[in-house]
Amino acid sequence: MKVTSLPPQKHDPDRLSVFIDGEFRMGLAAEVASAANLRVGDMVDEARLAELERRDRTWQAREAALRLLTVRPRSAVELARRLRMKGYGPDVAEEVIGRLRALGMIDDAAFAGMLARDRVRLRPQGSRRLANELRQKGVDDETARAAIRETMEAEETDDRELARRAAAKWKPRAGEERQSARRRLHGFLARRGFDGETIREVLDETLPDDAFE
User: Whole-angstrom Cα distance, residue 134 to residue 141?
Assistant: First the structure.
């Protein structure tokens, strides 16, 4: 079998149409064709065409991954999950993530640190909830704990201070009784992942007895 033509595709000049013996066989990324040194006049067999298709599939997965990363940074597990949702197999996703990790475009520690800083600065919540969020995004426990610890140290804060900041954004209702207000504030802080001891201390600071006299 002979490659008889490799014209750019009309609607996507980054891709070529591969014609074998005068008939269209496949679309192929120009980058893949160049890396494989594919030329008009080359003799090819089914094995080489199958390999080109595999490389093109990996190229498409890489492009999909890069688009996802332009929206926001992601952990390796999270990115692999999204690629599988788009129909790419585990082997393809693993290969793409390996390449992006080697280029420094995927770094779970950096991702965890960025997310932790964002939450600490903009959306105060407890370490427990933050660790859970990182785990849900595919960050392993050790990396998550390290990111939270380092962020707390860098920002010179802790769960108690974050709970105070969160509580400062909460207001009791007009005419609300103390116990009702405390229950609502307790739930507010608990949903943000603060532990019981921290919540009790902040409750006493925020809603002391004389605040309702």
Answer: 8
Cα R_g (the chain), whole angstroms: 27
Its pTM stands at 0.74
Residues 206, 68: Cα–Cα separation, whole Å? 42
The whole-number pLDDT of residue 94 equals 92
Alpha carbons within 13 angstroms on the beta-carbon side of residue 175 total 0
DSSP 168-192: HT--PPTT--HHHHHHHHHHHHHHT
Question: What are the residue ranges in the chain where pLDDT is below 70?
Answer: 208-213
**Helix, strand, coil percentages in the chain from 3-state DSSP, rounded to 5:** 60, 10, 25
Residue whose tokens read 């952990």: 75
Instruction: Answer for the pair 25, 5: CB distance below 8 angstroms, yes or no.
Output: no
CB 107 within 8 A of CB 101: yes
Q: What letter represents residue 86's amino acid?
A: K
- Return phi, psi of residue 15, to 5°: -120, 150
Residue 35's H or E segment, with its range, is helix 30-35
Query: Which among 134, 127, 131, 135 has a CA at the least distance from the CA of 195?
Result: 127
